[in-house]
Amino acid sequence: MENKDVFELIIDNAIDIFLAFDNDNCICKINEMAKKELQLDDNAIGTSIVFIFQNGDISELIFDGVAREMMIYRKNQTCFRALVKAIKTDSDVSPYVLMIRNISDQYALEKAAESSSEGVKETQRMICAECEKIQQQL
């Protein structure tokens, strides 16, 4: 198996979304996770990538290889919170690549943990207040 074939196999089976697109913002390549998460099929090749951004605004992409948190839209216009890394390649065919990781579940768990932690702190404050009342009565 050639290196290119191995690379394609890795990308196609990655747990993150990979989208390659050209200078006209048209999709050149998508992996299986992109098909699943963004509700795309092979007919997406050649179509504009702008639908995945709020109001079709692709200007928020910065091609410096740094992951940034943003909202990504599916074909049906539902969205999810994601880490997005945009890179520019040396390829003439697909000079831009987006790597997208859906972090909606992680974000929800963090918020639930924060909420739970606040609930525990409030319960501790109430118990301490009750303990102080009891001590004052003694």
- Count the DSSP helices: 3
Shape: elongated
Strand content: 15-25%
Structural class: alpha+beta
Terminus-to-terminus distance: 81 Å
What is the topology, as strand order, of the major beta sheet?
A: 2-1-5-4-3
Query: What is the β-strand count?
Result: 5
Write down the overall mean pLDDT: 84
Question: What would you note in describing this structure?
Answer:
Helices cover 37% and strands 23% of the residues. The model has no long low-confidence stretch (mean pLDDT 84). A hairpin with a 5-residue loop joins strand 1 (17-21) and strand 2. The protein has helices at residues 3-12, 32-38, 104-137; strands spanning 17-21, 27-30, 68-73, 79-88, 96-102. The protein is an alpha+beta fold and 138 residues long. The chain has a 5-stranded antiparallel beta sheet. The longest helix is centred in the C-terminal third of the chain and has 34 residues, at 104-137. It is elongated, with a radius of gyration of 23 Å. The chain has 3 helices and 5 strands, in the order H-E-E-H-E-E-E-H.
